[in-house]
UniProtKB/TrEMBL annotation:
Pathway given in the UniProt record: Carbohydrate acid metabolism
Name listed for the protein in its UniProt record: Gluconokinase
Organism from which the protein derives: Ensifer oleiphilus
One cellular-component annotation, GO: cytoplasm
EC code: 2.7.1.12
Superkingdom classification of source: Bacteria
Length: 195
């Protein structure tokens, strides 16, 4: 399938700092994060890959993570943001405001958040149909209960995921370009393909 034409958006600037794609499980953080990274020429880091084995074992067993489980993982994501000389895109649930504060402080510069928001039904359906992920659909409700939506937080855009994957990616790129600075190089095509 051919990539949708995103050229009208290509005239706007890209966001010049690192980007965290956040939301509960099933919101599409990886797919959107990878597309944003391709479009802006940034490296992508899968936040789930930074979980320690104990966290993965707990989630695989259907046991929700606690703050004590999450802080070391968030610290590792923060170190990746801090250590990168160039902007990067990271997928991370970033469920609580305190988690996002830590990530902002770690980044030490411009950091944008893309909050992928969706209805419980859509999120649950996505989780039930995906393969090869350690996070069971049974943990969605605990994530939704933990979530503190990033309302009125700086450099945060909200994207509704109750639409096609292509439309989610296009909306994300448009919102991020709106945070960009005039005169920056236009992003490359996101390679939306058949996502």
């Amino acid at each position: 399938m051919a990539s949708p034409d995103t050229s009208p958006l290509g005239h706007a600037a890209k966001f010049p700092g690192s980007i965290v794609v956040m939301g509960v499980s099933g919101s599409g953080k990886t797919s959107v994060g990878e597309a944003v990274a391709r479009a802006f020429g940034y490296a992508f880091i899968e936040g789930d890959a930074l979980h320690p084995p104990t966290n993965i074992a707990k989630m695989s067993a259907g046991i929700p993570l606690t703050d004590e489980d999450r802080w070391p993982w968030l610290g590792e994501i923060g170190r990746k943001l801090s250590a990168s000389a160039e902007p990067i895109v990271v997928s991370c649930s970033a469920l609580k405001r305190s988690y996002r504060v830590l990530l902002r402080e770690s980044a030490g510069g411009d950091l944008a958040f893309v909050y992928l928001h969706g209805s419980r039904d859509v999120l649950s359906g996505r989780m039930q149909h995906r393969e090869g992920h350690f996070m069971p659909a049974s943990l969605l409700d605990t994530q939704l209960a933990t979530l503190e939506e990033p309302i009125a937080e700086p450099r945060t855009v909200v994207v509704d995921v109750d639409q096609s994957a292509v439309d989610v990616i296009k909306a994300t790129l448009a919102a991020l370009r709106g945070l960009g600075l005039p005169g920056k190089t236009a992003p490359r095509d996101a390679g939306l393909g058949s996502r």
